[in-house]
Amino acid sequence: MITANFDFGLFGRLRAAAGADWTDYVNHPFVGQLGRGTLPQACFRRFLTQDYLFLIHYARAYALLAHKSTTLADIRMATATLDAIVQELPLHLKYCAGWGLTEAMIEAEPEAPETMTYTRFVLDVGHSGDMLDLWVALMPCVAGYAEIGQLLISDKATVIEGNMYADWIRNYEGEHFLASAQAAIENLDSLGKRRGADARFAELSKIFNTATRLEAAFWQMGLNAGHSKEPIAAE
């Protein structure tokens, strides 16, 4: 069975330095309720809608990563991930359809402030910094979801049988996703050695911590939908 080593290299150091910010992200109440199958459906639909809008900007970030790359190997890595995201978008829409969310509904939904804040932060880091800065800003999403998948599947409180969110959980604890996360962790470490990560660790840690807090805010945005008086798509 494939697992990812979240303590490895530069990522492991950044994750450890993030402390409670990282713990709060991967153990967010939204995640716990997903695992137990108790998350209100309105919360999940809100998350799915905003996640699709997020992925569009996530693809832009990897295009920028390719632009910032200075070696063919790095360009290949960035464009391979970009292509994977573009290929994932129709699959995401197909999954959303099972929750009553059509493409038209999703595209008509305005970006939540949390979505805008997070995606624009990542893109700003990419524009103002170098490839390493951008890669660090992307890692809480890349590796965080893999860790969340592993935490959920190993948690005795997680319910799979009869859980309406079981497919989502299985996707992020699956071998393909974990292998991709491990490759990203190793690529970050290699890039860090070439780009002087040790001397830049304090600044890289600030980027990583901010992105981690914005990930947690994204979960909270979904959770808040359960208490919102505003109409939710497909309701």
UniProtKB/TrEMBL annotation:
One Pfam family named in its UniProt record: TENA_THI-4
InterPro entries in UniProt: Haem_Oase-like_multi-hlx (IPR016084), Thiaminase-2/PQQC (IPR004305), Thiamine_Salvage_TenA (IPR050967)
GO cellular component, one term: cytosol
Start and end residues of each Thiaminase-2/PQQC domain: 22-224
Protein name according to UniProt: TenA family protein
